[in-house]
Design brief:
The chain is built from 5 helices and no strands. By secondary structure, it is mainly alpha-helical. Helix 1 packs antiparallel against helix 2 and helix 2 packs antiparallel against helix 3.
């Protein structure tokens, strides 16, 4: 078991996955707020704001891959599912603007991005269970 959040290899159990997910989500939100503040003050940074958020998405993907690999023991399937879950915002973003109400859009985005994927992975039993 590899508890190192920056290491893409290995596998993690449920509790370590949740701890890593909480840490990554907190960092992702704080970086997003910081970058929004910088952008709101009219600083021109070109692609610089995208880099930290993309790096956080890669860390989310590593975390998902380790947890899925702990459950199904298939490296190719765990990598494909981790990419789908790690980059779910980019995958579902073309579908969300079709929702007319902005409150529903915000609610669905928060639920689809921060609640559903980790809940599914926490409920999955490990191979040793």
């Amino acid at each position: 078991m590899s508890n190192n959040i920056f290491n893409p290899k290995g596998r993690i159990d449920r509790s370590t996955f949740i701890i890593n997910y909480i840490i990554l989500t907190t960092l992702y939100i704080l970086i997003g707020i910081g970058l929004f503040t910088i952008a709101k003050n009219n600083y021109k940074l070109a692609l610089l704001p995208i880099i930290p958020l993309f790096m956080m998405k890669i860390l989310f993907t590593f975390n998902y891959k380790k947890r899925i690999f702990d459950c199904i023991k298939n490296l190719q399937a765990s990598i494909i599912l981790a990419i789908i879950l790690g980059f779910d915002a980019e995958i579902i973003s073309p579908l969300l603007p079709k929702i007319g109400n902005s409150v529903w859009l915000f609610f669905l985005t928060v639920v689809l991005l921060f609640v559903v994927p980790p809940a599914i992975l926490v409920c999955m039993p490990s191979r040793e269970d």
